[in-house]
C-alpha cells in the first residue's frame, strides 16, 4: 500500500532522475544507491542505506519515511513552502500575543508595570533612567545611576539592545522615556514559534512534501509556545528571548545537515544581538554554534584552522563590542552549583495541569528553581515515540552526522546538573565546587544551561517522526502531543496571563515619595531582608518614573568600588543635597542620626503594610509622622565618637568590621590626629586604606602591619559635624592570621583620636 505522498526514486550523485517515478510500498524497501559524498545525505532508511538528499533535491516520504530524492519543484514552490510554514508560526505567535497581553501591558503603562516585583523594577529602572540625561562613554553607561560615576545598564539587566532602540528612536519621538518592555514581551512570543520552525527545518531535509512540512512546522511552533521553561521565565523579561536559542539550533543544524561551514555573518549577528540582550543567551547560543566546528575536517587538524578561526571571530567580536559599549564585562559571581538543575527536572511533572498544578518545582539546594526544565507531557511523548520507533525500526542510523551537536548538548547538561548532582532530594554525585566554580562561575544560574538541550530534544523528536512516520499516523501523533502539552502547561499559562494583567502578587502599597525629589539614596541593613529589598527597588522605580536619579541600584554585578556598608553609612551620616531624598528601611532606621544630615533636614515615618519607611529631605511639609528628637552628635573628647562598624577588643581598642568604618562627632579644633594600626592580609604586609574627612578629597594611605601610624588631618569646616570615613578593600578574616580580634573582617585598629589646635 502506498502513501499519499508523491514518491520519488533516489538519485545517486551524478545520475539523472528517471522519467517514471516509482512508489515505495509497505513491503521490503527497494535498494537505494548511497551517495558517494558522505555530507550529502540526510539520514538512512530502515534498511540502512544513505539517502541522497543534498541541496537542490527533495525527498518523498512513504511508510518507511524519507525514501528517495529528486529535483526540487522549483524556486517558486520552495518559496511558497517557506512562506506557508513561517506564516503558520507568525499566526500562532499573533494569537498568543493577543490572548496573553492586554493593551495596557503592551503599551508599557499598566498591568504588570503598575505592580512590578524586585527584578522587573530593577530592569525597568535602568531602562527608563538610560533614556534621559546626556550621553556618556561608554555608550551603555547611564549617568542617572550611581552619579557621578554612572553604571552600565548591562549590569541592571535592562536589555541594552532594547534600551538603545528606546533611547535613539522612541524616546526622542515621544519626548520622554518610554517603557518598551511590553513590546519586548510581545516580540518574544511572536518570534518564538517562527524561530522554532526555522530550527526544526534545519533538522529535516531541505524540501518535504507540503502536507508533511506544514504538519512539522505547526507542531514545532505550537510546542515552542507551550514550552514550560519559557512560561516560567516571565520574571526575567530579557530571558524570554528563547527565540535566539532556537535560531542558534537552526544555524548549527543546517551546517551539520548539509556538511557546509557555519555561516559567519548570521552567526555573528545572532551572537552580537544575544550579548546585548543577556549574556546567558550569548553563552548558550555560542555553545550550540560550536557544534559544526567540532565535526571531523578534511586534512585533520589543519583543516580545522579556518572554521576554528571563523568561529573564534564570531565569538570574540561580540564580546569586544559589549566591552566597548558597556565598559565592563561583568564577571563571575558566587552561586555556581546552588542554582543548578535537578537531574529529574526535565522528566518529573512540576506545576502540571495533568499531574497536579500544586506539584512544586524540584529543589534540593534552595536555588534549583533556576533549573526548572520540565519538558511537558507532549514533549515527553514525542521523545519517547522517537526513541522507541527509532530503535525498533532502525531510524537512528544517521546519528553520527549529529555527533558534534550531541557532544555539545551532553556537555551543557553536565554543567547544568553539577557539581552536586541531585535526583529529587537525593544527592547522587557530590563533586567538590573547586575547580569547577573557577571555570563555570560566570554561569551563576547554571540550571539554565539546559535550555538548548530541551529544545533540541523536542526538535529532534519532531524531525525524526516527521520524516519517518506515514502522514496518516504523523498528524494524529503530533496533534495528541500538542494537546497534552497544552493541558500540561495550563497552570503556567494561566499564571503568566494573570501576572501580566494584574502584576506581581503580594506586594505592599508604596509609601509616598516626597515631591521635588531629584536624587534618591536608600539605606538598607547589611544584609537586607527580601521584603526591604523589594520595597526599595520598587521605590527606586517610582523615583526614576518621576525623573529622579538613583544614588544606588540593585545590580547583577555591582561596581568594584561599591559595597552595602558604604551605601548605608553615606545615607545615614552625610548632609542632604538640594533635591535629595533619603529612604531608610528596617533596621537602618534605628541607626539614623538626623543631626548629621545637615540644617533644614526633616525625617518622617510612613508606616507601610508589612514594612516601615522613613524619608528624610529638606523639603518642607513632608507627608508622614515626624521622628521624635534625638540626642545631639557626641563631642570629640567628651563622648565615644565611633559611628559605624567598630567593635572593641579585650583591651578596649576598636577594630573595624567590614569594608567601611566611620567616626562622627563635633569639634572646634581645626585639625584631627588619628592613630591607626593596619591589619595586613599577610604578616608584614601593609594595609592600604582610603580616608575621607567631611567632603574633602579622599586620601590613600598605606599602614604598616600591626604598627601604629599617626595621621594628621585638617578639618575643612569645624562648624559642621565631622565625619571620617575609612574604606578598606578586601578586609581579612583575622583567624587566618591567628589574631585575637572581636570582628570577622578586619582592616584597621583605632588606637587614639584627638583634636589639634
List the helices and strands and how they pair.
Blueprint: E1 57-62, E2 65-71, H1 75-100, H2 103-106, H3 118-130, E3 141-142, E4 151-152, H4 160-174, H5 181-202, H6 210-225, H7 228-231, H8 243-258, H9 264-277, H10 279-289, H11 291-294, H12 301-326, H13 377-392, H14 403-417, E5 420-423, E6 426-430, H15 436-440, H16 451-466, H17 471-502, E7 519-523, H18 530-545, E8 549-550, H19 564-573, E9 580-585, E10 602-608, E11 611-617, E12 625-626, E13 642-644, E14 646-648, E15 654-656, E16 660-665, E17 671-678, E18 687-693, E19 699-703, E20 708-714, E21 722-728, E22 748-756
Parallel strand pairs: 7-8, 7-9
Antiparallel strand pairs: 1-2, 3-4, 5-6, 9-11, 10-11, 10-12, 13-16, 14-15, 16-21, 17-20, 17-22, 18-19, 18-21
Helix pairs in contact: 1-5, 1-6, 3-18, 5-6, 5-8, 5-16, 6-16, 6-17, 8-9, 8-10, 9-10, 9-12, 13-16, 13-17
Number of helix segments? 19
Overall shape: elongated
Structural class based on helices, strands and sheet pairing: alpha+beta
Which radius of gyration do the C-alpha atoms yield? 32 Å
Amino acid at each position: 500500500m502506498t502513501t499519499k505522498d508523491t514518491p520519488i526514486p533516489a538519485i545517486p550523485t551524478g545520475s539523472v532522475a528517471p522519467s517514471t517515478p516509482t512508489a515505495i510500498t509497505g513491503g521490503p524497501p527497494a535498494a537505494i544507491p548511497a551517495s558517494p559524498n558522505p555530507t550529502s545525505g540526510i539520514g538512512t532508511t530502515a534498511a540502512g542505506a544513505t539517502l541522497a538528499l543534498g541541496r537542490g533535491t527533495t525527498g518523498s516520504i512513504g511508510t518507511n519515511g524519507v525514501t528517495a530524492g529528486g529535483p526540487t519543484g522549483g524556486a517558486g514552490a520552495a518559496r511558497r513552502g517557506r512562506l506557508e510554514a513561517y506564516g503558520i508560526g507568525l499566526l500562532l505567535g499573533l494569537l498568543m500575543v493577543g490572548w496573553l497581553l492586554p493593551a495596557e501591558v503592551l503599551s508599557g503603562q499598566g498591568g504588570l508595570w503598575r505592580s512590578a516585583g524586585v527584578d522587573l523594577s530593577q530592569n525597568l529602572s535602568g531602562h527608563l533612567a538610560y533614556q534621559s540625561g546626556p550621553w556618556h562613554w561608554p555608550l551603555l553607561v547611564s549617568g542617572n545611576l550611581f552619579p557621578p560615576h554612572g553604571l552600565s545598564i548591562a549590569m541592571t539587566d535592562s536589555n541594552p539592545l532594547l534600551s538603545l532602540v528606546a533611547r535613539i528612536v522612541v524616546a526622542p519621538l515621544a519626548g520622554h522615556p518610554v517603557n518598551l518592555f511590553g513590546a519586548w514581551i510581545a516580540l518574544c512570543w511572536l518570534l518564538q514559534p517562527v524561530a522554532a520552525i526555522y530550527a526544526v527545518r534545519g533538522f529535516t531535509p531541505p524540501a518535504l512534501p507540503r502536507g508533511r512540512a506544514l504538519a512539522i512546522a505547526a507542531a514545532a511552533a505550537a510546542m515552542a509556545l507551550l514550552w514550560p521553561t519559557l512560561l516560567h521565565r516571565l520574571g526575567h523579561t530579557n530571558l524570554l528571548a528563547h527565540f535566539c536559542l532556537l535560531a542558534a539550533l537552526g544555524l548549527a543544524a543546517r551546517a551539520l545537515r548539509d556538511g557546509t561551514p557555519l555561516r559567519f555573518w548570521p552567526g555573528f549577528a545572532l551572537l552580537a544581538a544575544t550579548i546585548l540582550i543577556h549574556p546567558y543567551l550569548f553563552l548558550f547560543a555560542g555553545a550550540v554554534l560550536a557544534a559544526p566546528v567540532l565535526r571531523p575536517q578534511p586534512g585533520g587538524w589543519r583543516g580545522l584552522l579556518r572554521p576554528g578561526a571563523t568561529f573564534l571571530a564570531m565569538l570574540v567580536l561580540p564580546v569586544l563590542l559589549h566591552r566597548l559599549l558597556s565598559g565592563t564585562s561583568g564577571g563571575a559571581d558566587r552561586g555556581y552549583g546552588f542554582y543548578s538543575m535537578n537531574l529529574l527536572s526535565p522528566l518529573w511533572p512540576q506545576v502540571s495541569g495533568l499531574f497536579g498544578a500544586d506539584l512544586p518545582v524540584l529543589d534540593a539546594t534552595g536555588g534549583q528553581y533556576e533549573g526548572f526544565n520540565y519538558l511537558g507531557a507532549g514533549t515527553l511523548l514525542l521523545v519517547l515515540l522517537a526513541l522507541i520507533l527509532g530503535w525498533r525500526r532502525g531510524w537512528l542510523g544517521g546519528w553520527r552526522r549529529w555527533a558534534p551537536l550531541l557532544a555539545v548538548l551532553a556537555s551543557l547538561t553536565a554543567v547544568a546538573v553539577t557539581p552536586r548532582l541531585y535526583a529529587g532530594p537525593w544527592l547522587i554525585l557530590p563533586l567538590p565546587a573547586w575547580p569547577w566554580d573557577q571555570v563555570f562561575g560566570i554561569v551563576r544560574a547554571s540550571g539554565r544551561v539546559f535550555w538548548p538541550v530541551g529544545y533540541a530534544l523536542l526538535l529532534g523528536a519532531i524531525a525524526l517522526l516527521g520524516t519517518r512516520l506515514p502522514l496518516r499516523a504523523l498528524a494524529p501523533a503530533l496533534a495528541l502531543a500538542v494537546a497534552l502539552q497544552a493541558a500540561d502547561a495550563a497552570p503556567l499559562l494561566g499564571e503568566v496571563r494573570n501576572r501580566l494583567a494584574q502584576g506581581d502578587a503580594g506586594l505592599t502599597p508604596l509609601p509616598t515619595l516626597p515631591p521635588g525629589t531629584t536624587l534618591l539614596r536608600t539605606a538598607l541593613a547589611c544584609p537586607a531582608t527580601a521584603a526591604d529589598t523589594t520595597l526599595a527597588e520598587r521605590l527606586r522605580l517610582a523615583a526614576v518614573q518621576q525623573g529622579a536619579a538613583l544614588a544606588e541600584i540593585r545590580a547583577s554585578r555591582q561596581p568594584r568600588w561599591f559595597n552595602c556598608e558604604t551605601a548605608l553609612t553615606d545615607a545615614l551620616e552625610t548632609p542632604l543635597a538640594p533635591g535629595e531624598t533619603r529612604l531608610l528601611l528596617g533596621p537602618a532606621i534605628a541607626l539614623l542620626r538626623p543631626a548629621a544630615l545637615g540644617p533644614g533636614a526633616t525625617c518622617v515615618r510612613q508606616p507601610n503594610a508589612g514594612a516601615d519607611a522613613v524619608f528624610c529631605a529638606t523639603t518642607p511639609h513632608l507627608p508622614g509622622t515626624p521622628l521624635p528628637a534625638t540626642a545631639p552628635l557626641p563631642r570629640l573628647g567628651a563622648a565615644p565618637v565611633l559611628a559605624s562598624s567598630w567593635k572593641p577588643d579585650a583591651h578596649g581598642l576598636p577594630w573595624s568590621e567590614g569594608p567601611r568604618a566611620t567616626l562622627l562627632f563635633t569639634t572646634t579644633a581645626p585639625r584631627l590626629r588619628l592613630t591607626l594600626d593596619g591589619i595586613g592580609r599577610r604578616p608584614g604586609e601593609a594595609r592600604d586604606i582610603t580616608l575621607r574627612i567631611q567632603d574633602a578629597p579622599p586620601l590613600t594611605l598605606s599602614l604598616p602591619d600591626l604598627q601604629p601610624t599617626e595621621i594628621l588631618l585638617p578639618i575643612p569646616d569645624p562648624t559642621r559635624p565631622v565625619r571620617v570615613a575609612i574604606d578598606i578593600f578586601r578586609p581579612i578574616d583575622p583567624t587566618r592570621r591567628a589574631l585575637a580580634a572581636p570582628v570577622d573582617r578586619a582592616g584597621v585598629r583605632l588606637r587614639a583620636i584627638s583634636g589639634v589646635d
